[in-house]
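FIELD: query
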Amino acid sequence: MAVTIDQFSALEIRIGTVASAERVPDSDKLLRLTVDFGEETHRQILSGIAEYIQPEDLVGRQFPFVTNLEPRVIRGHVSNGMLLAIGDDGIALMSPSRAVRPGAEVR
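FIELD: result
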């Protein structure tokens, strides 16, 4: 499905620094991330990557997130964004080639 440039431009993709990460109880797939986007408070974001990545491997690292999605309740937890990942025979995560300011916009 093709999207217009206006549709794509509507996405807000920002770099976040993972402050904490833990497994969601009673879930094999979900991790609960606390992410710093340079805002007053950190955001909670749930991601279905627990089968592929250990929570401790994410802490302190920076990744791109879609930050203007409507909040979604997943297994009783509110998720305020989406981690972008590559799903090619498992999961690969994208990361800036150097540290950037939390909240930096992906262009």
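FIELD: remark
Strands lie at 13-23, 31-36, 43-47, 62-66, 72-74, 77-79, 82-83, 85-86, 92-93.
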